[in-house]
Amino acid sequence: MSNTATDSALRVCAGTATAGPVRELLPARTVQLGASTEVRRLLPSLDRRMVGAWCFVDHYGPDDIADEPGMQVAPHPHVGLQTVSWLLDGEVHHRDSLGGDVLVRPGELALMTAGAGIAHSEQSPDPHAPVLHGAQLWIALPDADRVTAPRFEHHLDLPVVTDRGLRATVLLGELGGAFSPGRLYSPLVGVDIALDAGSDVRIPLEPDFEHAVLTVSGAPDIDGELDPGTFCYLGCGRSELRLRAGTDSRMLLLGGVPFAEEIVMWWNFVGSSGEEVAAARADWQAELAGSGGNRFGAVCGYDGPALAAPELPATPLRPRGRTARNA
After folding, report:
1. Rounded to 10 degrees, what is the CA torsion of 93, 95, 100, 105?
2. Does some domain include residue 90?
3. 305 in a domain, yes or no?
4. For 87-104, what is each residue's pLDDT tens digit?
5. Is-cis flag, bond preceding 127, omega within 30?
6. pLDDT tens-digit series, residues 233-262
7. Does residue 19 have a pLDDT over 80?
8. Helix, strand, or coil here: 326?
């Protein structure tokens, strides 16, 4: 999924996590994605730009698209990150410049490692299901792996942990001895947790990780109820998490070792410097103009033009702190 904002605002992340357990509600920004999909952008925010290596979180839906085209995101580039597409309802047709061409459905992991460079598109198929609901997540690659070869993984079967009224699907990393097959470059975890009404359970956490939860439906109780669409940062130092729910509820748990490296995130690129990001933009624009290079490649099968990169901001692209307090 592309960051389609055209204001070319600079998003930068670096530094250390909040020490100790906290309960910090982070506000969402509403962003238009293409012509027909509106998303709630939760990371990066003004107060917190990363959770572990997770550096971007969009939540969209549930949207009634029975009479709408649904998601329509034209081919666009990525470098220096991994994208995680996670559907709760509906389906999305993924195409990429490596030749990937798959239909992603709920419960399936679409994990794309951009590395040195890749391009992809995302569309609701025609015909498509009447409801679209999901999350798009990005993971910053560490400096040692930022220019790794691009790859795309589509995992249909993921491990599931169950308890009294709990069903936890492990997207990435490990929970309770269940390991995701997705390839990672930083220690982190991503879990889709469904809670039945009346449940009261505890799940193990890595105390060295910082964690956050995104409520996608219902009103789970984590030191207090959380409304749908809420993104709650939990800090570090928790060895377990108590989960309760008065109604059927669902959330995404994200966590990881605090990402110590300073990075620049601008548009769809993550880099270690402004020069690195500017070079990626120049390479993409050159490919669009047909004036040289094949860093990103063509996305075959998409009917329409690719997205042009916005203009670079007037202010220098430079790494800063990962929160407002240490930016």
Report:
1. -20
2. yes
3. no
4. 999 999 999 999 999 999
5. yes
6. 999 999 999 999 999 999 999 999 999 999
7. no
8. helix
What single string gives the DSSP state of each residue in 269-319? EEESSHHHHHHHHHHHHHHHHTSS--SS---TT--SPPPPPPPPPSS----
Q: 222 and 241 in contact (C-beta within 8 Å)?
A: yes
Within a domain: 319:
no
Asked whether residue 80 carries a pLDDT value surpassing 90, the answer given is yes
Tokens standing for residue 250: 């669902």
More confident residue, 321 or 44: 44
Tokens representing 125?
Answer: 């198929």
CA 21 to chain centre: 23
How many Cα atoms within 13 Å fall on the side-chain side of residue 120? Answer: 32
Cβ-defined contacts of 259-262 (< 8 Å, 24+): 259/13, 259/14, 259/50, 259/52, 259/53, 259/55, 259/140, 259/142, 259/186, 259/322, 260/15, 260/16, 261/14, 261/140, 261/142, 261/143, 262/12, 262/13, 262/14, 262/15, 262/319, 262/320
Total domains, the chain = 1
Range of the domain at 139: 11-256
> What value does the mean pLDDT take over residues 111-125?
97
Q: What CATH number should be reported for the domain holding residue 221? A: 2.60.120.10
Average pLDDT of the chain, as a whole number? 91
- Determine the length of the chain: 327
What three-state secondary structure class fits 143? helix
Alpha helices in the chain (DSSP H): 274-289
Residue 176 domain-assigned (yes or no): yes
Q: Is the pLDDT of residue 13 over 50?
A: no
CA 57 to chain centroid, in Å, comes to 4
User: 145: helix, coil or strand?
Assistant: helix
